[in-house]
Design goal:
alpha/beta; 8-stranded mixed sheet; 10 helices; carboxylic ester hydrolase activity; FrsA_esterase; Alpha/beta hydrolase; AB_hydrolase_fold; Hydrolase_4
Length: 342
């Protein structure tokens, strides 16, 4: 009898290991395939800093013990005779590091701000052989950058701090707001609420809808294993608990972070909060939503996260020497910042 009980116990443990470990191993493989390799901003979409003669750039490395050191860039006007209105801390999106945002950064600097941006884990200069590992790593990066800024505020002339993020960077900054009450305003472009929503879609593409239903809980478990302190934090959590004036900008035709991943959730959960403004445009897309209409049309074939499609579109593409930031669209951003900083 004892022998049978022992056998049943062993069989039960083996079944438990299969039920728990097998899906986790599969999810690990999916994450490795998706996020395990270094990411370089496509040349067709990158604007090197030296193409902007009116920008002064100071580069430094934020050293970390348990994560990749972050390459960080402080942008100021080449003519620094005018005092800046605020320091904007910009979190880039997935697949495009700081050089993707140089036209936007230049616009913000010429509008009277200093801008601190960085190459996130796994991207461009910050990248190492392991990529960035998980969506929640972006929030770890944003949290660390904001901690650096607030702990060294005097190095940034004690300027008012504005958090800004786009897409993955919007999620990363939005979730981090709760931990940084020193921030005076936040602007989130095309943010998604939480990584599980995106990975649910990825699971259906890779494994089919039936098996994806089984995998979904394991994506959350895997994110928690990777970054337990940040994995469960959502943008709704961060914005709600921070009570920091926050402008959230989206577009109905967003092909990447569409309504069910983002603004549908935010309108339901956040629109009643006095410190939140949510604006949903009709046709600004995702990756280039702050560009002029003409430039959005030029780059429209690249408005995807499909790396193979981006590579195919890059073949023979002549990148414009400059792009125009949509001043009418960005006016609402500038006005919002000015109304909420001291």
């Amino acid at each position: 009898m004892k022998r049978i009980t022992k056998i049943l116990l062993i069989v039960g443990l083996l079944l438990l290991l299969v039920i728990v470990l097998a899906p986790l191993l599969l999810v690990h493989q999916i994450y490795q395939e998706s996020f395990g390799e270094p990411v370089e901003t496509p040349a067709a979409l990158a604007y090197p800093f030296d193409e902007f003669p009116d920008l002064n750039v100071e580069e430094f490395v934020l050293e970390r013990d348990n994560n990749q050191d972050i390459y960080t860039f402080l942008f100021t006007p080449d003519d620094d005779s005018t005092e800046a209105n605020a320091l904007i801390v910009l979190a880039p999106g997935l697949g495009g590091a700081t050089e993707f945002y140089t036209p936007l950064i230049n616009y913000l600097v010429q509008s009277g701000y200093h801008v601190l941006s960085y190459d996130p884990s796994g991207h461009d200069k910050t990248a190492d052989d392991d990529g960035f590992g998980s969506f929640s790593q972006g929030m770890v990066d944003a949290d660390d950058i904001l901690t650096h800024v607030t702990e060294n505020h005097e190095d940034y002339a004690d300027l008012p701090i504005v958090a800004m993020g786009h897409s993955w960077g919007g999620y990363s900054m939005g979730g981090s707001l709760e931990w940084h009450p020193e921030i005076e305003a936040a602007v989130l472009f095309a943010a998604f609420d939480r990584p599980g929503l995106l990975m649910d879609d990825e699971a259906e593409v890779i494994a089919g809808s039936a098996f994806a239903t089984i995998l979904k809980p394991y994506f959350r478990i895997y994110e928690f294993i990777r970054n337990s302190s940040h994995a469960n934090q959502t943008v709704v959590d961060g914005v709600t608990n921070a009570e920091i004036p926050t402008l959230m900008l989206h577009s109905e035709d967003d092909p990447i972070t569409d309504g069910p991943l983002s603004f549908d959730i935010f309108e339901e959960e956040l629109s009643a909060l006095d410190w939140v403004e949510i604006e949903v445009a009709a046709d600004r897309g995702h990756s280039f939503m702050f560009y002029s209409e003409e430039d959005r049309e030029t780059f429209a074939p690249f408005d995807t996260i499909d790396e193979e499609e981006i590579e195919a579109q890059s073949d023979g593409f002549e990148r414009p020497s400059s792009v125009e930031i949509d001043d009418d669209y960005m006016t609402q951003v500038i006005n919002f910042i000015e109304e909420n900083i001291e």
